[in-house]
Amino acid sequence: FMYRVGLTGGIGSGKTTVARILETLGIPVYYADDAAKTIMNTDTGLRQQIIQHFGDASYTEGQLQRKYLADIVFSNPEKLALLNSLIHPVTIRHSEEWFLRQTTPYAVREAALIFESGASENLDFIIGVYAPKQIRLQRVIKRDGLTADEVQKRMNRQINEEMKMKLCDAVIRNDEQQLLIPQVMELHEQLLELAGKSEVKSKKSC
Ligand code: ATP
Fold first, then answer.
1. pTM above 0.85, yes or no
2. With a 6 A CB cut-off, is 180 part of the ligand 1 pocket?
3. Residue 139 in contact with ligand 1 by CB distance below 6 A
4. By the 8 A CB rule, do 188 and 34 touch?
5. What is the pLDDT of residues 78-89, one digit of tens each?
6. What is the distance in A from the centroid of ligand 1 to the CA of 205?
7. What is the number of the ligand 1 atom nearest to the C-alpha of 143?
8. What's residue 117's pLDDT?
9. pLDDT for position 120
């Protein structure tokens, strides 16, 4: 039995930073966006579907042509939704297999899109990482060397942050007003307890 925890938040909120802290506490993390990049090159079924919908130019010598696809989907919300609908079921299945291999009391799936992708249905608890928009904007400009306009465009493709946080079971405030590490440690203790309780429950129901 594995207690499955989701970790989400908008671009620049600090999801990866929180995930790294959890890793130092011994908790394994599945990085869904990184995994998706690999899977798009390795899963032959997914490759076939992408080619079918987006053309042969999507791959060259078996390698996904990211720029080609990005140009198509980031100027067309319907095509973006279509691409996501092909990718998400495959990464969800992949992360389910990954969860089954973990031996810690709980494990974490980090992803920008958890509610939008349907991944939340397979998770027991979802952590939201929150930071105000202006702070997120500044962080991403600094980290990725993008312009404010480019970051804004990426933000516009994600659902409203306040709304997303309401759907989470716990919210970490990474707004540079409150210390981050103590919040993560406290949540970690809480999750260990919840994972222990749900293990007892699942044994009883067997
Ligand atoms: P994305 O969705 O774009 O991958 P993310 O939610 O994973 O973003 P991070 O990469 O963790 O966000 O953080 C964005 C940037 O802000 C990083 O460069 C990170 O080092 C920095 N950052 C995050 N939290 C803090 C903080 N509390 N204080 C200062 N810098 C921070």
1. yes
2. yes
3. yes
4. no
5. 999 999 999 999
6. 41
7. 18
8. 83
9. 87
Q: Could you write out the DSSP letters of every residue in 55-123? A: -GGGEETTEE-HHHHHHHHTT-HHHHHHHHHHHHHHHHHHHHHHHHH--SSEEEEE-S-STTTTGGGG-
Helices (H) and strands (E) in the chain, counts: 9, 7
CB proximity list for 122: less than 8 A, separation 6 or greater: 4, 92, 96
Looking at residue 167, what DSSP letter applies? T
Helix H or strand E encompassing 5: strand 3-8
For residue 95, the tally of other CB atoms under 10 A from its CB is: 24
Shortest-distance atom of ligand 1 to CA 129: 6
Ligand 1 within 6 A of 176 CB?
A: yes
- What parts of the chain have a pLDDT lower than 70? 204-206
* CB of 143 closer than 6 angstroms to any ligand 1 atom: yes
Distance 142 CA to ligand 1 centre (A): 10
Summarised one tens digit per residue, pLDDT across range 141-168 is: 999 999 999 999 888 878 788 889 999 9
Residue 109: count other Cβ atoms within 10 Å of its Cβ: 28
Distance from Cα 17 to the centre of ligand 1, integer Å = 6
User: Considering the chain, what is the average pLDDT of its residues?
Assistant: 93
Letter for the amino acid at 143? Answer: R
Which pLDDT belongs to residue 205?
A: 62
Q: Which helix (H) or strand (E) holds 161?
A: helix 161-166
